[in-house]
Design brief:
Bound molecules: zinc ion
Order of helices and strands: HEEEEEEEHHE
Largest sheet: 5 strands, antiparallel
Structural class: alpha+beta
Distance between the termini: 20 Å
Strand content: 25-35%
CATH class: Alpha Beta
Radius of gyration: 15 Å
Oligomer: single chain
CATH superfamily: Peptide deformylase
CATH topology: Peptide Deformylase
Strand order of the largest sheet: 1-2-3-6-7
CATH architecture: Alpha-Beta Complex
Helix content: 10-25%
């Protein structure tokens, strides 16, 4: 495994619509493992392949599986790798929250997201996968899937600002 370089704006790959994954070979496994390692080292709670310069529909997310566990720091976290993810269901109700992005250093923004979603895609071996997400987990998935369509959180933000000195957003994606 190896750390990959995280690209930042205005890198063109971040604005491209990424292509679907259709080969589940050893190379893909290495890319996924490297993405997980890179996300953890950043540290972040999500990463999309365009953020390491690859225009492919791959996301990794590591967070608490259950919404109620978000309050407990020592609750176990779960890691997902989802290929060709699609939001197939979403709640009508939305929620505002402050997001940062590893590819947009030095800026945070307030973004409205669906409160709950259902994601379908493939796992790292090409088998169908379904994730039901609420709370922060739902926000992370929406942020990462946006990356696959060339959308950056600042495009959706109601307002964007530079955090004050010493303030580090805890959950960059
Ligand atoms: Zn991001």
């Amino acid at each position: 495994m190896a750390l990959r370089k995280i690209v930042t704006l205005p890198e063109a790959v971040l604005r491209r619509k990424a292509r679907a994954v259709n080969k589940f070979d050893k190379n893909l496994q290495t890319v996924i493992d490297d993405m997980i390692e890179t996300m953890r080292a950043a540290p972040g709670v999500g990463l999309a392949a365009p953020q390491i310069g690859r225009s492919e529909r791959i996301i990794v997310v590591e967070y608490f599986e259950r919404e109620e566990d978000e309050e407990k720091e020592d609750a176990p976290r779960k890691v997902w790798a989802v290929l060709n993810p699609e939001i197939v269901k979403f709640s009508e109700d939305t929620v505002m929250g402050v997001e940062g992005c590893l590819s947009v250093p030095g800026l945070v923004g307030e973004v409205e997201r669906h409160a709950a979603i259902q994601v379908r895609g493939l796992n790292r071996h090409g088998k169908p996968l379904k994730v039901k997400a609420g709370g922060w987990l739902a926000r992370i998935f929406q942020h990462e899937i946006d990356h696959l369509n060339g959308v950056i959180f600042t495009d959706r933000a109601a307002r964007v600002w530079q955090p004050q000195d010493g303030f580090e957003p805890e959950r960059d994606v």
